[in-house]
Design the sequence.
């Protein structure tokens, strides 16, 4: 007796898309509906050129689907360098957020009491934290692993003999925003070098424009604070921020 194996090595089935009135093999006759039929014709060169062979083409992808539970299933065309650079950017955003939080605490002191600046830096702190979280979500979306790193301890006092505290803190904020912009551009470069169009698009659409806006806004605040000096003008500037 001849045994027929359950799985034979047959040529891979091919999908054909049929309209209701066509005359291709194994055509469905269910009214005018489009149906998909699998056939095992592989020798017709005309069809070979015209038809997408999903079962053939997916073979190499199937080999890449990880079987180890701690490996991401979603990861696709995502380089280790991109993964590491995203983790670095998460750290940059968190560090900037931490400094802004320290500035908030300074301006909220009872003997400083610049409530507008306190509000401004608190909002900035939250915004940078949200940036960090956006990168964390993205890391997971691409199948990378979020690795949080150490943060620097920010200074607690922002007074400055010549500049005063408001201008000194705002100049620091400006340099932090420029540094962040530089880091974002480096990240974009890593995406380019690894042909990761999706990562490049994410950075462009979610971060680059906003970063340039932040730099412009804080530059204007620095310019205004340089005009008003350290005294009463700072109070007016602070009231303006409070009302914003
Ligand atoms: Fe940011
Ligand atoms: Fe920012």
Sequence:
């Amino acid at each position: 007796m001849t045994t027929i194996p359950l799985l034979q090595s047959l040529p891979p089935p091919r999908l054909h898309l049929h309209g209701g009135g066509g005359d291709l093999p194994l055509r469905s006759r269910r009214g005018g509906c489009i149906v998909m039929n699998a056939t095992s014709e592989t020798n017709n060169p005309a069809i070979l050129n015209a038809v997408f062979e999903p079962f053939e083409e997916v073979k190499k992808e199937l080999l890449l689907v990880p079987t180890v539970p701690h490996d991401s299933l979603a990861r696709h065309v995502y380089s280790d360098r991109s993964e590491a650079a995203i983790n670095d950017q998460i750290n940059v955003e968190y560090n900037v957020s931490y400094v802004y939080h320290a500035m908030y605490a300074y301006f909220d002191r009872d003997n400083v009491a610049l409530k507008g600046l306190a509000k401004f830096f608190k909002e900035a702190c939250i915004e940078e934290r949200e940036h960090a979280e956006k990168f964390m979500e993205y890391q997971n979306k691409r199948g990378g692993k979020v690795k949080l790193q150490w943060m620097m301890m920010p200074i607690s006092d922002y007074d400055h003999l010549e500049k005063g505290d408001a201008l000194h803190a705002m100049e620091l904020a400006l340099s932090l925003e420029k540094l962040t912009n530089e880091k974002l551009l480096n990240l974009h470069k890593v995406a380019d070098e690894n042909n990761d169009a999706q990562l490049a698009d994410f950075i462009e659409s979610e971060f680059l424009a906003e970063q340039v806006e932040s730099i412009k806004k804080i530059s204007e605040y620095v310019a205004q604070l340089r005009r008003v000096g350290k005294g009463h003008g700072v109070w007016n500037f602070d009231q303006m921020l409070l009302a914003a």
Notes: Residues 128, 177, 180, 214 surround fe (ii) ion (ligand 2) (CB under 6 Å). The CA atoms of residues 11 and 64 lie 22 Å apart. The two ends are 89 Å apart (CA to CA).
